[in-house]
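Q: What residues go here?
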């Protein structure tokens, strides 16, 4: 499969959580409206919703991502960075959503501020792709070893976090984790 055939939404407003969800699912499932509905369900009594930007531009939190995945029969498993990515049972993982630091810019001017950004990584036709919505298109990472290297490099940054996107039964039985010590 060519990179042109890999589904990839590009960044708009502060909707990186929605883009990461759609990119990891490889189809446009979620919109700003569906994410806002999830926010209302998560905090129905709140005038100012704690799960999104007060400006209405997105900036959704992990609770929105988790609820969205649950609506599709999937689960988000928070990866313990003390573990080696060698312990991942990749054939049980649907994809990855990472939360990484991101520079803030106004046009071409980069500001000395850092925000949080959600991005997706997913296997498509036997190759893993970085589906970051800030990229011009999908970037092929390669096979399993290249993926493990990529994830290790990302997780070596203190503030990067990773969610494993798995089927609900995989979350329940823990088979996303390879417990063999020699891996």
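A:
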């Amino acid at each position: 499969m060519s990179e042109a055939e890999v589904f990839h939404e590009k960044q708009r407003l502060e909707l990186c959580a929605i883009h990461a969800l759609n990119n990891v699912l490889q189809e446009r499932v979620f919109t700003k409206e569906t994410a806002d509905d999830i926010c209302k369900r998560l905090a129905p009594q709140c005038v100012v919703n704690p799960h999104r930007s007060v400006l209405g531009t997105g900036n959704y939190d992990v609770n929105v991502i988790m609820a969205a995945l649950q609506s599709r029969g999937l689960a988000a498993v928070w990866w313990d960075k003390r573990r080696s990515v060698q312990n991942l049972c990749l054939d049980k993982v649907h994809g990855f959503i990472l939360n990484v630091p991101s520079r803030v810019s106004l046009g071409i001017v980069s500001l000395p501020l850092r925000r949080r950004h959600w991005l997706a990584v997913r296997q498509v036709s036997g190759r893993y792709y970085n589906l970051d919505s800030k990229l011009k298109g999908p970037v092929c990472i390669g096979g399993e070893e290249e993926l493990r290297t990529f994830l290790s490099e990302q997780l070596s940054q203190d503030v990067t976090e990773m969610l494993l996107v798995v089927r609900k039964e995989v979350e329940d039985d823990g088979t996303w984790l390879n417990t063999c010590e020699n891996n």
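A: Context that may help when evaluating the design: The longest helix spans residues 144-155. Residues 91 and 162 are 17 Å apart (CA to CA).
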